[in-house]
Amino acid sequence: MNNTFIYKRATLADFREAIDEYGWVVYEKAINQKLISEITTGFETSYLLRREIQVLNGIEENMEGTLHHLLEKDNFALELLSKLYCHREIRDFLGGNYILNGINGVINTKKNKSYIQDIHRDVRTFSSESKFMIQMIIVLDDFTIFNGATHFLSGSHKLDIKPEEKYFKAFAKQAIAKKGSIILFDSNIWHAGGINFTRKQRRALTLGFTKPYIKQQFDYPRFLGYEFGEKIDSDLRQIIGYNARVPASLQEYYRPVESRMYKTDQG
């Protein structure tokens, strides 16, 4: 397929053409193996913490192997985001500034069954003209036809109606990619996690980025602390959402332009 590129050689024109025609793009050799190793090192501990809460709150069914909201002060997330992977492409797709909507993880094993294996798209409101969300998968283990590589129905980002399962299975293509690759895709595209037939885990990070006026899945600035936001560089402040906060008091609302919680360049 003509939607796979070497990350450092790919042009913006490559991205525009592929994302329009297929709805998804694969960038090979994008992330160095040292960072990939740092990400996977703490995956199991992060999962056990989140799984305990899922079970405690009675929502464990159909959520095996899922890890949500992995942006923390002392893990890999800040370093990952600071690298600005696909920054040019995301800005182009969304038409300017953007923020993190969610940073989640998946551990796909032979025994696991979760909602990500259902045919779905990552937005509930379809919009073919106004682009407001784009997704990124970071491949932590090789994606193969045997271990559950994600299935994408190319071109379906232009279709509002969910495809029938028979049609999807017949025409969807799996995103075969090596560890360290990045998969970018239009949030409108219909896709599904594959089934892992092997004995090994197939892990991945899934990140969503939106225009700043879209509500985040998780209030990352409040979770990390507003003072923490003053210590990081401007690119991280922007991506994490510090420039698109919602005031929670009149004191926070009535501020001079330069110190307002929602900045004027956020759309």
Automatic annotation (TrEMBL):
Top-rank taxon: Bacteria
Annotated SUPFAM superfamilies: Clavaminate synthase-like (SSF51197)
GO molecular function annotations of the record: 2-oxoglutarate-dependent dioxygenase activity
The entry's keywords: Dioxygenase, Oxidoreductase
Keyword Oxidoreductase: yes
UniProt name for this protein: Phytanoyl-CoA dioxygenase
Species per Swiss-Prot/TrEMBL record: Pedobacter kyonggii
